[in-house]
Amino acid sequence: MRQRYQKYEYIDERRSTSGRDPYRVRPNRKTLPTTLVSLNSALTERANQEYQNLCRSILRDNRFGEPLLTPMSKLVTLRKPDTQVIASDTYQFAGVYCFGRGVFGGLQRSGMDFAYKQLTRIRAGEFIYPKLMAWEGALGIVPNECDGHFVSPEFPVFAMNEERVFPEVLEVYFRSPSVWPSLGWSQYRHKRSQAPTQPK
């Protein structure tokens, strides 16, 4: 009995000094069931899809008449490359996925690894696309995680006129596969491209 009493006394002392119960099972983020992680990803994807569907429904809402086609030159402004390449510096690049999957962070590359003399530092909320791949849905709005990344002159970069259109709405519009066949763009043709906006 004495030994058993001492054993429990030792346990009680350990609890009182550490403030922890040695027999209590505590949750650990590393041991969360993979089903919870999968469920979180599925819910996030569903929320994003519902958000995009909502934006599309707003764009197609004809209760106030047919949507007006607005020249892209009134919605965005083309930016020129703003960074001189230094061979000894390193640059974090960004890219754009095809098929409406948006902008992503790319590789870090040394200024000695490419021939471009200038790059463009992109900012969150700007609209970009690669010249040769726009017709495959490679267009997108720069997300926060890619703010400050760089793209080559092969990527036209546009500042948004948020008094006329929100970046999220423009991104949803250009993620629609029905729009892509008309996008035989170049940096000189963006003024003739049009996006719908509702009349005020």
Q: Describe it for me?
A:
- The protein contains three helices and eleven strands; from the N terminus they run H-H-E-E-E-E-E-E-E-E-E-E-H-E.
- By secondary structure, it is α+β, with helices and mostly antiparallel strands.
- The strands form four sheets. The protein has a four-stranded antiparallel β-sheet, covered by helices on one side.
- A hairpin with a 6-residue loop joins strand 4 (90-96) and strand 5 (103-110).
- Helix 2 crosses helix 3.
- Residues 1-18 and 185-193 have low confidence and may be disordered.
Provide tags for this entry.
3 helices, 200 residues, alpha+beta, four-stranded antiparallel beta sheet, 22% strand
User: How would you describe the shape?
Assistant: globular
Helix content: 25-40%
**How are the strands of the biggest sheet laid out side by side?**
2-10-7-8
Distance between the termini: 86 Å
Number of helices: 3
Secondary-structure blueprint:
Layout: H1 2-18, H2 34-59, E1 68-71, E2 76-79, E3 83-84, E4 90-96, E5 103-110, E6 118-121, E7 127-128, E8 140-141, E9 150-151, E10 157-160, H3 167-174, E11 194-197
Antiparallel strand pairs: 1-11, 2-10, 3-6, 4-5, 6-9, 7-8, 7-10
